[in-house]
C-alpha cells in the first residue's frame, strides 16, 4: 500500500484520491471491471459484495449490493460512460437508499504506470455536501484498502 492523498473541497464537493498499488495496471483495472474479481474486494472492510450486474462497456450497467456486518444492505448502481482499458474508467454512481437515494454522481478512475506498480487517481464528483464527501472518502479509503489486500 502506498500513501493516499485525499482532497474534498467545500466549493466543489468533489472527492479526489490517489493511491499506488503494487500490481500491473491491467490487473488493477480488471479489479474494477471483472465481476468475479470485483466482488472479492468491493465495499468497506467487513462488507460482502453481491454483484447483480457488471457490464463494463460504454452504456453498460452495474448493480451492486453491499451487505454490511450489521446486516444492512446498501444498493449502488450506475452506467459506464467511458471505458478505455486499462487507462480510464468513468461511470455514474447512484445510491438506492438513504438521503442520497437517486442522486446521480460521477466516478472517474485513471490508471497510470508507476515504478512500484499502478497509480490510481480517483475523482468522485457531484457529492451534495462536504459531509457527503467526507463519508465517501472514508468508504473509498476502506474499499481501496480491501483492493490492496486482494492484489497482494
Features of the shown structure:
152 residues; alpha+beta; Alpha-D-Glucose-1,6-Bisphosphate, Chain A, domain 4; eight-stranded antiparallel sheet; 25% helix
Question: What this model shows, in words?
Answer:
The protein is built from three helices and eight strands; from the N terminus they run ββααββββββα. The chain has 152 residues and is α+β, with helices and mostly antiparallel strands. It has a single domain (5-151), classed as Alpha-D-Glucose-1,6-Bisphosphate, Chain A, domain 4 (2-Layer Sandwich), CATH 3.30.530. The chain has an eight-stranded antiparallel sheet. The N and C termini lie close together (9 Å). Residues 1-6 have low confidence and may be disordered.
How is the main sheet built? 8 strands, antiparallel
- Work out the number of β strands: 8
CATH class: Alpha Beta
Q: If strands are numbered along the chain, what order do they take across the biggest sheet?
A: 1-2-8-7-6-5-4-3
Percent in strands: 35-45%
SSE class: alpha+beta
Please name the CATH topology. Alpha-D-Glucose-1,6-Bisphosphate, Chain A, domain 4
Could you tell me how far the N terminus lies from the C terminus, measured between alpha carbons in angstroms?
A: 9 Å
Rg for CA atoms: 14 Å
Question: What share of residues is helical?
Answer: 25-40%
**CATH architectural designation:** 2-Layer Sandwich
Return the string of H and E elements: EEHHEEEEEEH
Q: Label the overall shape.
A: globular
Number of helices: 3
Write out the CATH superfamily name: START domain
Low-confidence stretches: 1-6
| Average pLDDT for all residues | 93
User: Based on the structure, what is the oligomeric state of the protein chains?
Assistant: single chain
Amino acid at each position: 500500500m502506498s500513501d493516499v492523498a485525499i482532497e474534498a473541497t467545500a466549493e466543489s464537493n468533489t472527492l479526489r484520491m490517489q493511491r499506488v498499488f503494487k500490481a500491473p495496471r491491467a490487473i488493477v483495472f480488471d479489479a474494477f471491471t471483472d465481476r468475479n474479481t470485483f466482488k472479492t474486494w468491493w465495499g468497506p472492510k467487513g462488507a460482502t459484495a453481491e454483484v447483480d450486474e457488471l457490464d463494463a462497456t460504454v452504456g453498460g450497467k452495474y448493480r451492486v449490493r453491499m451487505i454490511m456486518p450489521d446486516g444492512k444492505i446498501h444498493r449502488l448502481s450506475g452506467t459506464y460512460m467511458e471505458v478505455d482499458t486499462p487507462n480510464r474508467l468513468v461511470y455514474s454512481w447512484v445510491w438506492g437508499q438513504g438521503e442520497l437515494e437517486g442522486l446521480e454522481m460521477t466516478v472517474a478512475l485513471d490508471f497510470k504506470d508507476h515504478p512500484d506498480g499502478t497509480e490510481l487517481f480517483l475523482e468522485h464528483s457531484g457529492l451534495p455536501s462536504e459531509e457527503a464527501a467526507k463519508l465517501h472518502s472514508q468508504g473509498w479509503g476502506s474499499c481501496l484498502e480491501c483492493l490492496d489486500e486482494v492484489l497482494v
